[in-house]
Amino acid sequence: MEIIIIASFVLGILILHKPVAFLFNKIYIKQQFRKFLSSETFYHSVVSSHVKYYNRLGLEDQRKFLFRTFLFKKAKRFHYIEVQESAEMPILVSAVAVQLTFGLEKFMLNYFSDIFILRDDYHYGFYSRPFMGHVDQSGIYLSWDNFIKGLSGQMPDCNIGLHEMGHALAYVNFITATEEDKNFIKEFPKFSKVAKPIFSGMQLGNKNLLGDYAATNYHEFWAVAVEMFFESPVRFKHELPELYQSMTRVLNQDPLSALKGKLTIIRRSAERETEGNNSKKKAII
Ligand SMILES: [Zn+2]
Q1: Ligand 1 centroid vs 219 CA: distance in angstroms?
Q2: Which of 120, 145, 181, 193 matches a 20 to 30 Å C-alpha distance to 12?
Q3: In which region does residue 123 sit, left (phi positive, over 0), alpha (psi from -120 to 50) or beta (all else)?
Q4: Residues 167-180 pLDDT 10s
């Protein structure tokens, strides 16, 4: 008898685990959204004065962008190394992560709890050249000096924030497999089908807009492609149209839609496809 009770209890937990977790998450998101509303104006002023991408979004996308930024920032511990901390820093770093994953369902880069902000170029490990940023199992590292130059467009085609978040996104999906996004996982092999021949050509000496650094290894190819996708989408689409298209699919967004004044930058909303009329409320995050 006892065995039957225990077995039914375990079975009940197994069956109810998902809906209960979903319900708790829904309540949590609602609570956080209320908190977010009181700081929305501040978030808007910080993000709109630095992130071009945000300014091109429609109003609905802008709110979703800021709320995701709020959630991302809240979930991370920021460490400041030899740099004066400011209220803008964690918001802008979070905003850049959100930009990259804006078309995806999973955007927390959850393996990484710690983000380290350093003053400028630094030395890491046994490498002789200085680093602008890197990602390893201990966290995401960014040099503030280079991060802000990338955001302001002082270094053309260069955005160290997007570059490192590109590494982090691949890390959580493929290395730790702790936050697998359905679309990203499904589309990445198709992206690689187009990308690998281009990458191999570059290793043999072919030149294109991605530059020599992208030929270092396939991880760098991906991270540089991410930077170029957002920083120079017109040139990217013109020079490497097939690769550009596969980037729009793997990230489920097209930066050129915003330039053309379309309502949303997202290619297709998974929620809208599956949830039908409930989509409006769900679209908050
Ligand atoms: Zn890199």
Answers
A1: 7
A2: 181
A3: beta
A4: 999 999 999 999 99
